[in-house]
Automatic annotation (TrEMBL):
Ranges where the Transposase IS204/IS1001/IS1096/IS1165 zinc-finger domain occurs: 42-82
Matching Pfam families: DDE_Tnp_ISL3, Zn_ribbon_ISL3
PANTHER family referenced in this protein's UniProt entry, alphabetically: TRANSPOSASE FOR INSERTION SEQUENCE ELEMENT IS1557
Cited InterPro entries: Transpos_ISL3, Transposase_DDE, Transposase_Znf
Name of the protein: ISL3 family transposase
Transposase IS204/IS1001/IS1096/IS1165 DDE domain sequence ranges: 158-247
Length: 477
């Protein structure tokens, strides 16, 4: 009974073996002997019963109770019965579970392959070592490469889009399933012929979602002429945003002046070097803008202008669509970590408290996560006299000379910020029911002063309503 249990435990996957004994020390050694009467040679197909010699094969099996298991199998070499066979002596062959040259059992290899797919090389090797499998990261990766590739089923509804092998240089095509949202295949380029060849290999496809690329349209018409084309909403709304930017970009300066009137924001103080750098930058932009228009009037194409001036084609196209060089948009200031606590700080500072450590302790009780340095900088900007404990060499620099920056005088955490051109585009495209009251009022004031913005906003909202909620009446005249 005991012998039957051990056979079922260790030799289930090795038919044709007799269990001799099990030796338990640091590892478990299972000794078994082959009892097959004959063995066939696969080259010539002849079975032989003539034994030439014996030898032992050592295989690693799954561990038992935290101990590694080694199978010591006594197998034989046979003499081929066919006189003209080119190999007279061959090793014993087995039906399954014990192929030539392997050093691990089939179930041990399956475990390593599963771990390699889930965790990869280094992490998989670390876990398998704890599981009493003495393997390296390279062995784990080799086990994963031995797995047969999974061929995904191509559904009837797919999507086609491009991706970058190397951004700005080499692009390919990704084909994905719209039913599972998983990639199916990758194509090496974005040419129509490549996509058409792939589609001809899968004639059952009925619906294809794509962007507005003409190459993809041509490839789909050639490879799947009966398939239905669907323009995905993201690309259509992206094209709508780009068209809106081109249309309003012709009057960008005037529109930004109106935005500035609605949400005034004085520029922050700049040093002389910053002002000089900004002036040089603006002059360089105007110079490039003039060169683009001069080359265009001379009959040069956008591609030729882009190559001559080493500019992107998008910048050339935007400059030709604009009437004048766009101003440099000042970056919006993001809310700092101290802004939610500014009212309390200003109140305590007005009461005469100028000790950064004391103010930090009070702010920590209110949930301030920042450091003492940030509070000390805020106080230093407003000090008119040095603190009493300031060392002598640092008294001259303890008080900040000059005006306080405008953002330092903010009385609340949500300060008004100037509207940039991109922010205006974002507000015009966004669902109006999700805009806050301030953005709605500013947008209404801008529309009242600029007819172009008003008309573009109405058309854009009608189009986005059509795309999001499929309301055809929104764009009907």
């Amino acid at each position: 009974m005991e012998n039957e249990v051990l056979v079922a435990l260790f030799l289930t996957h090795f038919p044709g073996f007799r269990l001799d004994h099990v030796q338990v020390e640091a590892t478990v050694a299972v000794v078994a002997t082959s009892i097959q009467p004959t063995s066939g040679y696969p080259k010539c197909g002849t079975c032989s019963y003539r034994i030439h010699s014996r030898y032992r094969r050592h295989l690693t099996d799954l561990p038992v109770c935290g101990a590694a298991v080694t199978l010591e199998l006594a197998v034989r070499r046979f003499v081929c019965q066919k006189p003209l066979c080119h190999r007279q002596i061959f090793c014993e062959r087995f039906v399954d579970g014990l192929t030539a040259y392997i050093r691990r059992s089939q179930r041990a290899r399956a475990t390593i392959q599963h771990v390699s797919v889930v965790l990869g090389g280094n992490a998989g090797a670390a876990l398998l070592t704890r599981m009493q499998h003495d393997v390296s990261a390279s062995t784990v990766l080799r086990a994963a490469r031995l797995l047969s590739p999974i061929v995904p089923q191509v559904p009837e509804v797919i999507g086609v889009d491009d991706f970058a092998f190397r951004r700005g240089h080499v692009y390919g095509t990704v084909i994905f399933s719209l039913e599972t949202c998983r990639p199916i295949d990758l194509l090496p380029d974005r040419r129509a012929s490549t996509l058409a060849t792939w589609l001809k290999q899968h004639p059952h496809i009925k619906i294809i979602s794509r962007g507005r690329s003409l190459e993809y349209e041509k490839g789909i018409r050639e490879g799947a002429p009966t398939a239905q084309h669907v323009l995905d909403r993201w690309h259509v709304l992206k094209n709508c945003r780009e068209a809106l930017e081109r249309q309003l970009g012709r009057d960008r300066t005037a529109i930004l002046e109106i935005c500035q009137d609605q949400v005034p924001m004085p520029p922050p103080p700049r040093t002389q070097s910053e002002q000089l750098c900004r002036t040089e930058h603006q002059q360089q932009r105007q110079k490039v803008f003039g060169q683009i228009h001069a080359l265009s009037k001379g009959g040069r194409s956008q591609r030729a202008i882009s190559r001559t001036l080493h500019l992107s084609r998008g910048r050339v196209r935007g400059a030709l669509a604009a009437k004048m060089p766009p101003p440099i948009d000042r970056r919006q200031r993001l809310p700092g970590i101290l802004e939610p606590f500014l009212p309390y700080l200003q109140q305590r500072f007005g009461e005469g408290e100028q000790n950064a450590g004391q103010l930090l302790r009070e702010l920590r009780e209110q949930g301030f996560p920042g450091s003492r340095k940030r509070v000390a900088q805020w106080i230093q900007i407003r000090r008119t006299t040095a603190a009493k404990i300031t060392p002598g060499p640092y008294i001259a620099t303890a008080v900040k000379n000059g005006p306080i920056p405008p953002f330092a005088e903010t009385m609340s955490g949500e300060s008004d910020r100037a509207w940039t051109f991109q922010h205006l585009i974002w507000v015009m495209l966004r669902d109006q029911t999700k805009l806050d009251t301030q953005n709605q009022h500013v947008l209404a004031a801008i529309k009242a002063r600029c007819e172009v913005v008003s008309m573009a906003h109405d058309l854009t909202q009608a189009f986005t309503l059509l795309m999001r909620e499929r309301q055809l009446q929104a764009v009907e005249p």
